[in-house]
């Protein structure tokens, strides 16, 4: 692992290196889910590049001091992508990688959906959809009250946009002029029972946020350079919150899982794990 | 011992005045409201600390989510609205505030059928049951403005989740200078024949009933059980041991509230006959507070009748 100055938000990072980190994290996700025999592969793989961009490329944070008051925050509202968050935090050094094997097992800190009181680096509880953006508003308001120059990022799923609370929060973030808040929609186009356009059409997502008075940036969310570019751009915008609508591929990196509804939460058998790891290693 | 001042006071205004005072000493205290901040008297705080009161509009789920975010950051949060509206955010209350044991105090105002004219849709009669069933959640139901102030002050200085249940009606103060603390029920009147364990507005009804009972030679102990969780087991056990009969009285459904909490305790530790004065699993309706309470059987008369029946 390269030495990364996590506490410096203006650090220079090599994109090729970040890609190799993402590949490693994807392998860890697959191995972890193979061990746990339940959990969500597709939505974990779709947001991996976003998590790597934030934790390795951009956010100021300190794996040795997870509660550092000045840290930027990452709130994983789509808590079912816990394997991606845990693998990223372990890779960054928040806890030993070996612990990933305990995911979803009795007496583990690594609950099926993240618990901030158990896992260093986890900021909010995960599970029910649609709450994270509201929690992000609370943190952004608190940081502003305390005069902290820190940024709050919330990753939501796109199926999650079905939840009414997301739009309550969208109105409120604009009202409170939270330019320290960034929502990132992991727009992989699939949810548990089908495509988002079949289950509950949410298009046009960017226009909806524009109508709610947000700054909107559209990118390819599996392109680390594009994610970093969008985060830098968001920092320059004042008095409005920013949403990054990140077009992603569910199951990204494992060809036979890509854009497949059934890999939302399918059990990964040892055979599937082997095949997936081969696909990921070839890309590396 | 009890000072019966007939001047009526609002619990909400009592709470609001304490929060406005606490704002000076506790800079970490913030409030989140949902377009009912004046009705809850939270504007008393907002006028002094406008940057620390957040009004999120008619959006209770968002109110709870934002409160959770503020608390996860490290703030002490009071938030609230009418209890029936809070109930659409039970998911958020359970999965953020309860699950993570956050420092959020949830105010449920306008509870019980004594809400009156607004009608059954606005009369929360299931809130104690719901909140009591959430792990980590403490449940506090004050009976007057004086005790509300004391309990709010203690809650603000105690980390962790609380549900504070307030009524709409103004009531006379029952307390003058007694010590009131979370988890410790107050015995307002001694008695050996029967114990009336009440909360909220029903403490007033219980005291009136006890007066009438005394005239009939029945000495009723009256307990203000303002904390439903954690329940003051010692005071209730002592009452059961010394009177052998218990009546519970609450402006709440007969299921899951104070009566259930007391029954759970006594059936486990000391089986005791219990009469429950509560709403009989029906929704209320519009009318004056006293009219609705009378029609739905939660007045001093209902307590009196139940006591006569049990002591006979």
Number of helical elements of chain B: 12
Shape annotation of chain B: globular
Strand order of the largest sheet of chain A: 1-2-3-7-6
Structural class of chain A comes to: alpha/beta
User: What's the CATH class of the largest domain in chain B, please?
Assistant: Alpha Beta
Question: Roughly what percent helix of chain B?
Answer: 25-40%
Spatial gap, N to C terminus of chain B: 28 Å
What is the element string of chain A, with H for helices and E for strands?
A: HHHEHHEHEEEHHEHEH
Strands, helices and their partners?
The complex is a heterodimer of chains A (284) and B (312).
Chain A (H helix, E strand, L loop, with lengths): L14 H22 L5 H5 L1 H11 L14 E4 L5 H11 L39 H14 L6 E6 L6 H12 L5 E7 L2 E2 L2 E2 H4 L5 H7 L3 E6 L3 H12 L6 E6 L22 H14 L1
Parallel strand pairs in A: 1-2, 2-3, 3-7, 6-7
Antiparallel strand pairs in A: 4-5
Chain B lengths: L7 E2 L1 H15 L3 E5 L9 H6 L4 E3 L4 H14 L2 E7 H4 L3 H9 L5 E6 L17 H6 L5 E3 L4 H12 L5 E4 L5 E2 L13 E4 L4 E5 L3 H14 L4 E5 L2 E3 L3 H11 L2 E8 L4 H12 L4 E6 L9 H7 L4 H12 L1
Parallel strand pairs in B: 2-3, 2-4, 4-5, 5-7, 6-7, 10-11, 10-13, 13-14
Antiparallel strand pairs in B: 1-8, 6-12, 9-11
Helix pairs in contact in B: 1-7, 3-5, 8-12, 9-10
Describe this structure as you would to a colleague.
The complex is a heterodimer of chains A (284) and B (312). By secondary structure, chain A is α/β, with parallel strands linked by helices. Chain A has a single domain (16-283), classed as Thiamin diphosphate (ThDP)-binding fold, Pyr/PP domains (Rossmann fold, 3-Layer(aba) Sandwich), CATH 3.40.50. Chain A contains ten helices and seven strands. A five-stranded parallel β-sheet of chain A has the order 1-2-3-7-6, sandwiched between helices. A two-stranded antiparallel ribbon of chain A has the order 4-5. In chain A, strand 6, helix 9 (224-235) and strand 7 (242-247) form a beta-alpha-beta unit. In chain A, helix 5 runs parallel beside helix 6. Chain A is globular and about 50 Å long. Chain B is an alpha/beta fold and 312 residues long. Chain B is 39% helix and 20% strand. Chain B has twelve helices and 14 strands. Chain B is globular, with a radius of gyration of 19 Å. The relative contact order of chain B is 0.13. The model of chain B has no long low-confidence stretch (mean pLDDT 97). The interface between A and B is medium-sized, with 32 and 29 residues.
């Amino acid at each position: 692992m390269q030495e990364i100055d996590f506490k410096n938000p203006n650090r220079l990072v090599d994109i090729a290196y970040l890609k190799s980190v993402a590949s490693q994290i994807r392998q860890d996700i697959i191995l972890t889910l193979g061990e746990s025999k339940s959990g969500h592969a597709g939505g974990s793989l779709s947001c991996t590049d976003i998590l790597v961009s934030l934790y390795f490329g951009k956010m100021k944070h300190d794996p040795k001091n997870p509660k550092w008051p000045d840290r930027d925050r990452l709130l994983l509202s789509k808590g079912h992508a816990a394997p991606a968050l845990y693998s990223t935090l372990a890779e960054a050094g928040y806890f030993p990688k070996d612990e990933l094997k305990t995911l979803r097992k009795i007496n583990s800190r690594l609950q099926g959906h993240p618990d901030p009181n158990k896992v260093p680096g986890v900021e909010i509880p995960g599970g029910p959809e649609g709450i994270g953006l509201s929690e992000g508003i609370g943190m952004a308001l608190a940081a502003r009250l305390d005069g902290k120059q820190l940024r709050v990022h919330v990753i939501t799923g796109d199926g999650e946009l079905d939840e009414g609370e997301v739009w309550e929060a969208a109105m409120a973030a604009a009202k409170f002029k939270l330019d320290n808040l960034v929502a990132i929609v992991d727009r992989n186009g699939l949810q548990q029972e089908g495509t988002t356009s079949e289950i509950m059409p949410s298009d046009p997502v960017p226009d909806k946020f524009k109508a709610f008075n947000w700054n909107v940036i559209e990118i390819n969310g599996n392109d680390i350079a594009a994610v970093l570019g969008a985060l830098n751009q968001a920092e320059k915008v004042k008095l409005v919150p920013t949403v990054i609508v990140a077009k992603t591929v569910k199951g990204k990196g494992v060809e036979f899982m890509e854009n497949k509804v059934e890999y939302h939460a399918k059990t990964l058998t040892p055979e599937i794990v082997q095949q997936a790891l081969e696909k990921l290693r070839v890309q590396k | 011992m009890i000072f019966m001042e007939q001047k009526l006071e609002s619990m909400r205004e009592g709470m609001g005045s304490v929060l406005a005072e606490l704002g000076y000493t506790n800079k970490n205290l913030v409030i989140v409201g949902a377009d009912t901040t004046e009705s809850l008297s939270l504007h008393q705080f907002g006028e002094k600390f406008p940057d620390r009161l957040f009004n999120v509009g008619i959006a209770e789920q968002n109110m709870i989510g934002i409160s959770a975010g503020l608390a996860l950051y490290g703030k002490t949060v009071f938030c609230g609205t009418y209890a029936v509206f809070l109930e659409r955010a039970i998911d958020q209350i359970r999965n953020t505030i309860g699950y993570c044991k956050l420092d959020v105090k949830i105010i449920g105002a306008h509870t019980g059928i004594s809400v009156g004219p607004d009608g059954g849709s606005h009369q929360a009669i299931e809130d104690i049951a719901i909140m009591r069933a959430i792990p980590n959640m403490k449940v506090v139901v004050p009976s007057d403005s004086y005790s509300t102030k004391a309990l709010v002050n203690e809650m603000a200085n105690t980390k962790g989740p609380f549900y504070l249940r307030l009524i709409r009606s103004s009531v006379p103060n029952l307390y003058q200078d007694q010590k009131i603390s979370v988890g410790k029920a107050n015995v307002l009147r001694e008695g050996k024949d029967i114990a009336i364990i009440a909360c909220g507005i029903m403490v007033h009804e219980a005291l009136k009933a006890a007066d009438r009972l005394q005239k009939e030679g029945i000495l009723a102990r009256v307990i203000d059980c303002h904390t439903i969780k954690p329940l003051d087991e010692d005071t209730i056990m002592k009452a059961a041991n010394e009177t052998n009969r218990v009546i519970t009285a609450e402006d709440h459904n007969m299921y899951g509230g104070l009566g259930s909490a007391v029954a759970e305790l006594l059936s486990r530790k000391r089986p005791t006959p219990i009469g429950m004065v509560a709403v009989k699993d029906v929704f209320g309706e519009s009318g004056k507070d006293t009219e609705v309470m009378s029609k739905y059987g939660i007045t001093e008369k209902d307590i009196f009748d139940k006591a006569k029946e049990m002591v006979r």
